[in-house]
Amino acid sequence: MTQGFWTIDDFNVFSIEGLEHRMSALQTKIQPKFGMIGEQVSTYLSAHGTGEFFPHVAKHARRTVNPPNDSWVAFAPAKRGYKALPHFQIGLWGTHLFIILAVIYENPDKKGIAERLGENVPVITSLPEDFVVSGDHMKPEAFQVSEIGADGVEDLLERLKSVKKAEFIIGRHVSRDRASELSEKEFFDLAEETIDQLFPIYDIIIGTHEK
Question: Domain-by-domain residue ranges, the chain?
Answer without folding.
Answer: 8-206
